[in-house]
Specification:
7-stranded mixed β-sheet, 7-stranded parallel β-sheet, Spore Coat Polysaccharide Biosynthesis Protein SpsA, Chain A, UDP N-Acetylglucosamine Acyltransferase, domain 1, 357 residues
Amino acid sequence: MKGLILSGGKGTRLYPLTYTRAKQLIPVANEPVLFRVIRAIRDAGISEIGVVTGDTDAEIRAAVGDGSRWGVRVTFIPQESPAGLAHAVKISQDYLGEDRFVMFLGDNVIEGGISTLIEQFAHSEWNSQIVLTRVPDPQHFGVAELNEDGSIKQLIEKPSDPQSDLALVGIYMFDASVFDAVSGIEPSRRGELEITDAIQWLVTHGYGVRAYVHRGWWIDTGKPLDMLSANAHVLDEMNPGVDASAEVASDSEVGRRVTLQPGVQIRNSTVRGPSIIGKNTIIENAYVGPYTSIYHDCVLTNCEIEHSIVLEGSQISGVSTRIVDSMIGRNAEVGRTLRKPKALKMNLGDYSNFWLP
């Protein structure tokens, strides 16, 4: 089998963070979401991975490289315009050939990995397997309606009146019959070739499509709150560890569920987990609370923060109000003036400056 990761899109729902960074490269628990997807596919025993790219092609290529760091071989497949998921499959036909493959959206995070699903599909006679999960707002997703026996009745992309709460998770498995499907459908009202229409084509034409209902958590990291939720889930699953080069002063308290990466310095501070502090980051006279990820080369002094994500090179100092539920972009500076706001909540873009009034 091969892997196909879709890593295009502008990430408009994550503006301003994605003005200057591909959304798939924003880290969750200090690892870009795209890297987690590559590892999940590799852990399922797949070593050949195609990555479909869009406007951020150069940045994705630079970050991923040839895939050797994960022990896989990566091939990049440029998509000239965001013409839909089924279009991404269509332009990947030369790469995929006759091989079965798993398609994974590059900004999705799922509990438990996909190894079991891949093994099931690889040894089955199914033409496709789709992953579903129950969601409270199915009108925002592709939705599957099932028959009483669990087989697929119909699939609809973003229905105004959903007949089911089963949404398609961004994980799909196909054999080569999908190329007939993507060639046999027409663009939707959005002007895109929808993957739901392609799967429905397979169902209508009698191909074997299996629906798997995922019971664990799944997050499409398309919005800031989704990123924070994914970050919290991943931190909960991590096995914490303190690198030997990390320095924790005797006047500091570091909880047992805290991960300290190389070169971290903790002085006169409290860090509670689950949380992760990136390499060469300095925490001084500060409090870092649960579900917080601080990326590499940051400096936090005289401040408090929890349930937040701070990207690389950022500085937070002298903020008297605890920062919560926030995402702070690369090389941002957060400070304070004489006034005391009662609360602070923000989504700061890269290289921004924010001073409390």
